[in-house]
Give the backbone structure.
Amino acid sequence: MELRYFVLRRVLLIIPTVIGITVLVFILLRSFPDSLLVSAYINPHSTLPRQEQIQIAKEQLGLNLPVPVQYFYYISNLLKGNWGFVTKPFPGPVLLGIELFMPNSIQLAIFSSILSILLAIPIGTYIGSRPNTFADQAGRVFSLVGYAMPPFVLGILLILAFGQGVSNWGGAVLPFNGVVNVPTPVPHWLLNQETGFIISSPTHLVFFDALIHGDPRVAWSAFLHLVLPVVTLTYTILAGLLRFIRAGMVDATNQEYVKTARSKGVPEGMIIKRHIRRNALIPTITVMGLLIAALLSGVVVIEILFTYHGLGWFAVTATLDNQIYGVLDTTLVFGLILVFANLIVDIVYAFMDPRIRY
Amino acid sequence: MAEVNVFKKNVEPQKRNPKLEDMKHTMKLFFKNKLAFSGFVVMMIYFFIALLDFVYPQYLGVTNANTMLSFLYGQQPQLVPPSPPTLSKGIMYIFGTTQYGIPVLPAMLAALKFDMAYSIAIVAIGVAIGMVIGTASGYLGGMVDEFMMRITDIFFSIPQIVLALAIIYTLGDNFIFIVVAFMIIWWPIYARLSRSLALSTKEMRYVEAATASGSSKFRNIFVHVFPNVLSPIFVQISLDIGIIVQLFASLEFIGLNRGNPYLPELGILINWGNQYIVYGAWWPIIIPSIFLVVFTIAVSVMGDGLRDVLDPKLRR
Amino acid sequence: METEVKQSEVKEENYVEVRDLVTQFFTFKGIVKAIDGVDLSVKRGEVFGLVGESGCGKSVTATSIMDLVPDPPGRIVRGKIYIDGFNIISDLDKLAQIKVKSETNVKVKRNKRLIKRHNYILSKIRGDKVAMIFQEPFLALNPVLSIGYQIVENIMLHSRIDIINSIIRRETLGEDGVDELIQKIVKTKDYDERRRIVNRWSREYGVPDSDESIYDLINTSEDINYVKKELLSLLAEEKTGIDLQPLSVAREYYKADDELFALNLNLIEAEANRNESEAEHLRQQISQKRSEMRSKFMSFTIKHKLMRKRMDRPLEKESRRRALELLNLVNIAGPERVIDSYPHELSGGMQQRAMIAMALAANPKLLIADEPTTALDVTTQAQILELIKELNVVTGSSVLFITHDLAVIAEMCDRVGVMYAGNLVEQTSVKEIFHDPKHPYTMGLMRAIPRADKKRSADQKLESIPGTVPNLITPPSGCRFHPRCKFAMDVCSEKKPKLVEVEPGHKVACFLYSREYVGEPAGEAQ
Ligand SMILES: Nc1ncnc2c1ncn2[C@@H]1O[C@H](COP(=O)(O)OP(=O)(O)O)[C@@H](O)[C@H]1O
Ligand code: SF4
Ligand SMILES: [Mg+2]
C-alpha cells in the first residue's frame, strides 16, 4: 500500500527534473545564432527556394517570438517528434538516429550492469565478511584499479591482450571493431536502407535479430563483438559496486542488530546472508544512481573505442561534425535514460529498505 | 555507538588543547595507514615534478611548454612512426617516441603540469561555488533550498561526459572551455555535499546556541558551519581529482580539444598512442596509461585514507 | 534440548555460574582491562541484578556470558562460564593464542577449525538456553526484517522439533484427543476453568486459533456424543491435510542432530578434563553418528538444500502462530498488525516488547536484560519492568537484570551484584544491600540516592562519590576503588581483595572485612 504511494510520489518527482533538463538543453540551443538553428532544416534537394525553407523553419521553431515562448515551441516540437535534422553520419532526422542507435547503447548498459551486479553481490559478500584477509586485500586492489582506471584505458589494455592487437604476435581472439562481422552478401535485415548503417531490424540489436532471422553465425559474431565492450564496462561498474558493498558489509557487521542475531544463535552464514547483506546493500543502492551515470559516460567512450554504433557514438560524431541537433538531442535522451534509471533504482531502494516507504 | 562514547570518555584524559591534539592524532592515524601514506607520497612526487617543470622547464628539456611540438626542438611535425624504447639516444628516449617522433618521457612529465593545474583549478572553482550555494541553501532551507536542489538534480541527471560534450560544443572546443565545462559540471557535487553537511551541523548544539544568542544567519554560516563542512569536502576533493583527470583524458580520447591538438596532456598522449596499437607499438599507449592510472590510484588511495581518519564514524 | 552433561563442580541451583572471568579489549591505545576476575552466579528462577556506574563493565559481563564480546577488539582472556552446568569456554586457550608484546601491540592467533566448532556449539546455546535483550531496541532490531521474521527465525532455529510435534499432533488428532478434552471438561462446571482447559488443550494440539469456537461449541450442548461429533468436524477443518511423512523424517533428522550436539558437548568436556581416551571414544562416536546421519538422511538433506523454502513452509506457518502467541504474551496490542510491521513502525516500548517476545521464542531458561528500559520514557519503563517481572514468574526462567538504577533493583531483583571498574565488589540479597551495604563503594552508592521514605536531616545531605571511574587501560593497582575510597589502607594499593563471604549469602571484596589487615570488622570502623 504505502509502497504504491511512494512510487507515485517518486514518479511525480521526475517532472521537475525532466523540465529542468529540457530547459538546460534549450538554453544551450538558444545560445547559438538563429541561422545555425535554421540551417539544419534546409534541404538542398527540395524544390522550395532556400529563403522560403528558412521562413518555414523559423515559424516552426517560433524563432520570431520572445524566448520564453520559444521554449514552449521547443517542447511542443519535441512532443510532435520534430527533433531537428543532421547531415552526418547520415542525412536525416535526429529522431531516426536515436531510434536506430539507442538500442545498442541500452544493450551495452544493461548487459554490463546486470553482469556487474551478479558478480558484485557474491564477491562483495565474500570479501566484506572477512575484512583484512588476503581475499579482502586482493578484492580491494581489484576494485581500486578498476576505480582508478578510465574505461578507455582498460578497453585498450583488453584490446592489446585479447583483441586483434594480438594478431601481430599470432591469432586474433576477440573482435574489437563494430557490432558484427558483416557477411557477404549483406542480409537484407542487417542493413538499414535509410541510413546505410549496419543496423538490423526489427529490434536493432544484431544478436537478437540474427536469432529471430535464424542466422546463428551472425549471432555468434555479434556476441563476440559484445564481449570486450561489455567486459570493459562491467569492470568499471563492478569496481565501484565492490567498494560500496564491502564498506556496507563492514559497517553493518558492527551494528547492534548483528549482535542480537548472534545472541539468538543464528549461525554465521545466515547472519551474513540475512542480517548483514540486506543492510549492506542499502547504501550501495543509494550510490547506484551515480554508478549508472558513470556507466553511461563509460558507454559513450567505449562506443568510440570499439566503434560500436550506439547513441554515444552518435553523440560524439555529431559533436565532432558540428551537428547541433545531433549533440543536444542526444544530451536530452541520455538525460531521460538516466532519470528513468534513477527512478528504477529508487523503487528498488524502497523495496529493500522498509524505512523509506512513508 | 554508546559504548564507543563511554570508551572515549574514559580512556582520554583531559586534553590540553583538544583541537591540536586531535590534529596530531589525525595525522598519526593517517601516516599509520601505509596504503594512504604511499598514495600521499606518490602524489607528492607527481606534484613536485609538475612544480619543477613549471619553474624550470629547461630541466626536462622543454623550452616552450605550450605545445607538445616543442619537444621536436624547432623541427616541423612529421608523421614518423614511433620508435621503440631505447637508451642509446639519451634518457629522454627511454620510453620511446610517439606521434611525430615526440619522446614519451618528457611529454608525460610536461603533461603532468597541465593535468595538475586544470584539475586543481576545476575543484577549486567547483568548491568555491558549490560550498557557498550548498551551505547557504542547506542553512537557509525553505524555497531557496528546494530550488537549489532541483537545479543540482538536473546536473546529476545527465551523464557527465554527455553534459561535457554539450557544453563544450556550445562554448567552443578548446582546452580552456573544457576546463570551464568541468567547472560547470562539478559544482553541484560540492553543493550537495556541503548542503547535507550544513543541515547536520545546523542541528548541532553550538550552532543553535549561537543562533539563540542572536548572531546573524550569515555570520553563523561563516563562523560555525563552514569549518565543519571543510574536512569532508577535502576528502571529496582528493577523490575527485583522479576522476577529473580520467574524464579529461576520456574527452580527449574521443577526439575533443580540437582547439589545442598539441597540448601536452596525458589523454592526448594516450590518444596518439592508440593509433599505433595495430602496428604492435605498445609503448606510446601503455606507458602514459600507467602514468595516469598510478596517479589516479594514488589520489584515490589517499582520499580513502583521509576519509578514514577524518570521518568520526570510521575512525577507531 | 536436554543434554546429559552434568558437572559436579557446579551447584545444581546455579543456572549460570561465572568464575574468574577476565575480558579485555585490545585497542590501539592499549589493553582495556574491562573485566578483571568476576565471579557471579544466577540461580534458577531468580532475578539477579547487576548494578554499577556506567562504564564499569556490566554490559561486557553480560555479553561475555554468551561469549558475544565483539572480536576484534575484545576477547575473553580467562575464566569459566557454566551455563546449565556446561562450561562454554572450556577450550578458550586453544581457540586463540594471545601474544602480548606491548600494551598497543597484541597479536591474536586464531584456530579457525576450533572456532568453527565453538561457534556451532554457541549457536545452539545462545537463544536456546540464554537469551538477551538490549538497551536500545531500535538499534538491536534489524531494520530491514519484519518483526515476525525476526521472531520466527528464532523459533525455527531452536524449536523445530516442538513445531513439528504440534503439527503432527494436530493432523493426527482423532477421537482420543477429543475424548481427553471432553473428559476434562465434564469434570467442571466453572466456565473460567473450562476456558483454561480448552486453551491449554488447543495449544497442546496445535489448534490455538480454534480456541474460541471449541469453547463455544462445548457450551452449546450437554450431549456428549453430539459435541464430540461436532468437535471432530470442526477440527477436521483445521487440518491442512499436509503430508506427514516428510515431517516425521525431518523430526528424526533434527533429533539426530540434537544427539550429535550432545555428543559434541561431551567431547568438549572430555577434552577440557584432559580425558584423552574418552575424547577419542567420543570422536569416534561423533564421526560414526555423522556418517550414519549422512546415509540415513541423504535424500532429506539434499531435498532440504534444494527446496528449503518449500519444505520449511509448514514449519514457518506454525512458527508464525507461535510468534503471535508470544506477541500476545508480552501484551502487544494488535499482534496481527505488529507481526508484519518493521521495527521503525513501532514505538520504543513496542519495540522492546517485540524484542522480549523474540528473546522468549525458544523458552530460554535465562533472560539477560541489559538496561532494557534506559532508552524508554518513564511510563513505558514501568510497564516493561512489570512485564519482565511477570514473565519471570510465569515462565519460571531466571533473569539477569542490568541497570544503573538502584531503585529498579529494589523493585525487581532477588539478589544483587555491585560492579566497580570491572570487578564485582559485592554480591548479596536485595534486602541486605539496602540495609547493610558492606563495600565502601556500595555505601557511597546508597548515599547518592535520594530517598523519599526517610527524612533527611540537615547534615545528611546527598553525597556523590568523589573522583571518577578510572581509565581501564591503566587501572589503579590493588583494589581498583582505592583512589576514591575513604577507608583506603596501605594494603589496598598493593593487593587485590578477593570476593569472600563475610556473612552467609553476603560476599564482599574489600580488605576492611579481612581480619588480617583490620583488627575488627568494618561495620564498627565506620
Ligand atoms: N568495543 C569496545 N572496545 C574497547 N573498549 C570497550 C568496548 N566495549 C566496552 N569497552 C570498555 O569496557 C568497559 C566496560 O564497558 P561496559 O560494559 O559497556 O560498561 P557498562 O557498565 O556501562 O555497561 C568500558 O570501560 C569500555 O571502555
Ligand atoms: S579494599 Fe581498600 S580501597 Fe578497596 S574498597 Fe576496601 S578499603 Fe577501600
Ligand atoms: Mg552498558
Residues B 3, 6-7, 10; C 25, 27, 32, 34, 52, 54-60, 70, 73-74, 472 surround adenosine-5'-diphosphate (ligand 1) (CB under 6 Å). Chain B touches chain C at residues 1-3, 6-7, 9-11, 13, 316 (CB under 8 Å).
